[in-house]
# Entry
Amino acid sequence: MFFLDIIYALGFSLLVVLIFSFLFKRRGPWPFLVFLLLVFLAAWAGGVWFSPAEPLGSNWYWLPFLISALLVALLVTAAVPSERDHVHIKRTQRLGQPEKATESEVVLGLFFWILVILLIGSIFFRYFYFLP
# Structure
């Protein structure tokens, strides 16, 4: 099931990220691939931890991957400023001054790395220590 989990997580995260990035024009302050990585890891972790209940059967095995990808994409795009807001702030800065990382950029970078480490840790924990 390991490879099937990766295929489901990658497929649904790519679909969700494409919809959010190009249709809604929202992906937070991160570039496309970083947003894809975050949603992919969250979809993978959510998909392996939230296995479907018995009445759903095996035909709905993919549903937790889709729901996890949608929830994380919605939370990330709603919680952080968009790329347009970030560009507007940079345009209003004076020319010639060195660019300093703002407090929000530092916090978002720290949030991103902590979240990536926790998601990877939860995926490894599920596969290697918690046997179904």
About this structure: The chain has one domain: 2-128. The mean pLDDT is 79. The helical segments are 2-23, 32-49, 63-79, 83-92, 103-128.
